[in-house]
Design goal:
Distance between the termini: 20 Å
Largest sheet: none
Number of domains: 1
Low-confidence stretches: 135-139
Strand content: under 5%
Oligomer: single chain
Number of strands: 0
Mean pLDDT: 78
Order of helices and strands: HHHHHHHHHHHH
């Protein structure tokens, strides 16, 4: 019971962060929104590590954590770009296809696919095709098509994070969180400086900027705790329902999609759940 509650809390946190972050970035520059939230998450995890004083992780764990952080940074940048161009109700399910990446990595290492995962993959890919089209079979408008492309790129970044976070957690979840958040922060700042992106925001808005990062941090901790309390086959499915939260909030905020796109979104979400079984 506790594992299920923690996993559902993970979906709630991730889903809310995916809605709140892009909403904040509509009124403020994107990179301060991304950097501020992750800086808070990094500071909290560093404080916890300082209090616990665990042993230093090995080199393999360090490399995995850095890869996870860089992948997460790429996923966030692409996701926020997608959300600035198209509706979250379309962008979020496409971005959640990152769950396929660890499956592909498992297949490459010799794991069997299984009928359930195969069905999930087909549903997810078919859902993407439907979600990216309009009624009558026409292609989506330019901005919406570009949003779908950025969302799929974000899925690759998030998938890299998912594939690397398990080996990064071998020496403890807080090491994984802090090291990956550190790599994520460095990557975000580097990209912001390279693009000469605006970083100044009113001081009064800084507390608000921390909300998406804190939600992601809370969700990560809840998911790690859930995997210790219950079966991964159940926890991974319940923890993968965050797109439902984001889409629900987007609909509540007034977003609408066509019937064809709604069918595709539902198929993609169902496919992600099936892929996540025994992930």
């Amino acid at each position: 019971m506790l594992a299920a509650v923690l996993a559902l809390f993970t979906s709630l946190c991730y889903g809310a962060s995916n809605f709140v972050g892009p909403a904040i970035s509509r009124d403020l520059p994107v990179y301060p929104v991304l950097i501020a939230g992750q800086a808070v998450a990094f500071a909290v995890s560093a404080a916890v590590l300082a209090a616990m004083q665990p042993a230093l992780p090995g080199g393999t764990v360090l490399l995995a954590a850095v890869a996870a952080g860089v992948g997460n940074a790429a996923g966030l940048i692409c996701f926020y770009r997608a959300a600035s161009l198209g509706p979250l109700s379309l962008v979020t399910p496409l971005g959640s296809l990152g769950a396929i990446v660890p499956v592909a990595a498992g297949l490459a290492s010799g794991e069997s696919l299984g009928a359930l995962k195969l069905a999930g993959l087909l549903l997810a890919l078919g859902g993407v095709a439907l979600a990216s089209r309009r009624v009558g079979g026409g292609a989506p408008a330019g901005h919406e098509r570009e949003a779908a492309a950025w969302a799929l790129l974000s899925a690759l970044g998030f998938g890299t994070f998912l594939a690397c976070v398990a080996p990064a957690s071998e020496d403890g979840v807080f090491w994984a969180v802090m090291l990956s958040r550190g790599a994520l922060l460095v990557a975000l700042v580097a990209v912001a400086l390279w693009l000469a992106a605006p970083l100044r925001v009113p001081a009064s808005r800084l507390p608000l900027l921390a909300v998406p990062g804190l939600l992601l941090f809370a969700g990560t901790l809840a998911y790690s705790a859930a995997t210790r309390e219950g079966d991964l086959s159940v926890v991974s499915v319940l923890g993968s329902l965050f797109p439902v939260v984001t889409v629900g909030l987007a609909f509540a905020a007034g977003e609408r999609v066509s019937g064809v796109q709604a069918t595709g979104i539902a198929a993609a979400l169902t496919g992600i759940v099936l892929v996540s079984v025994h992930l």
